[in-house]
Amino acid sequence: MSFGETFKALSDPARRQILELLKKGPLSAGDIGSHFDMTGATISYHLKVLKQADLVFESREKNYIYYQLNTSVLEEIMLWVSTLKGGTNANVEGE
Amino acid sequence: MSFGETFKALSDPARRQILELLKKGPLSAGDIGSHFDMTGATISYHLKVLKQADLVFESREKNYIYYQLNTSVLEEIMLWVSTLKGGTNANVEGE
DNA sequence: GAGGTATTTAGAAAATATTCTAAATACTCC
DNA sequence: GGAGTATTTAGAATATTTTCTAAATACCTC
After folding, report:
1. Which residues touch strand D (CB under 7 A)?
2. Does A93 reside within a domain?
3. Residue B15 sits in a domain of what CATH number?
4. In the prediction, which pLDDT does A95 show?
5. Cβ contact (<8 Å) for B81 and A86?
6. Which domain holds residue A80?
7. Residue B5 pLDDT more than 80?
8. Which of A71, B39, B57, B67 has the fewest C-beta atoms lying within 10 Å of its C-beta?
9. Contact at 8 Å (CB) between A70 and A56?
10. What is the DSSP string of A5-32?
């Protein structure tokens, strides 16, 4: 995992929207695609980018591939941003 | 400000390094450039990207332009990531 | 205001990212 | 194993990003 890869993955609006959809729970590639005006191939490309950035992982079930959020990388992002912002650790509240 | 712009700005390693340099305090464009093997024009380009993302702001003094971190946008990023990650607000600790 | 330093802008080349169509793979269920 | 659905991969077209060189602007000092 690299921050560059993660931030790049987060820089695309479609990919951010995918992550927000996944916030509610796992979805198949097809389900995700139905929210966008893009071909399945393009959705698959975006999912690959998110997967390579470790922002999502997949699990196979029946004839579907379900995607879900990987929150551990989000933690790392928070930590990096927080360290840059402030000071020494990842506290957000207080100061 | 848009998240896309901010994440895109953060996706480049040189730009992240610039931000880390600025963490210690304001620096002129030339000072920043001296840390990189790039032309001044390229540094200027990266500073423009960071400025447009509101991650830095500039102040002019004598013949120099000093750049410094703008932490308020970092707050917003933290909030967005945190909301995606978790739950309801920006708390990092505890859970 | 002329000369000097700092920085940005313009324009072009090269690299990377995004999207599509068409074809391939993967897996299920009969 | 064959038909059918879900998803990915390949390859190409277009758009965007990154970098450079050369020139322009901005500002200071004398």
Report:
1. A 28-31, 33, 40-41, 43-45, 47-48, 58, 63-65; B 8, 11-12, 14, 37-39, 41-42, 45-46, 49, 60, 62-63
2. no
3. 1.10.10.10
4. 40
5. no
6. 3-85
7. yes
8. B39
9. yes
10. HHHHHHTSHHHHHHHHHHHTS-EEHHHH
Contact B85 A91 (CB under 8 A): no
Neighbours of A88 (CB within 10 A): 7
Q: What pLDDT, on the 0 to 100 scale, is given for residue A8? A: 97
User: Quick one: angle between helices B71-85 and A13-23, nearest 10?
Assistant: 40
Of B69, B78, B84, the CB nearest to A92: B78
pLDDT in tens, B8-61: 999 999 999 999 999 999 999 999 999 999 999 999 999 999 999 999 999 998
**Is A91 inside any structural domain?**
no
- Domain total in chain A: 1
Which chain A residues in 47-76 sit with Cβ < 7 A of strand C? Answer: 49, 60, 62-63
- B17 occurs within a structural domain: yes
In a domain, B43, yes or no: yes
**Which residues of chain A have a pLDDT value below 70?**
1, 87-95
Strand C: which bases are under 7 Å from protein Cβ? 4-11, 17-23, 26-29
Distance CA A83, CA A85 (A): 5
- Model's pTM, two decimal places? 0.89
- Amino acid A46 reads H
Higher pLDDT, B64 or B94: B64
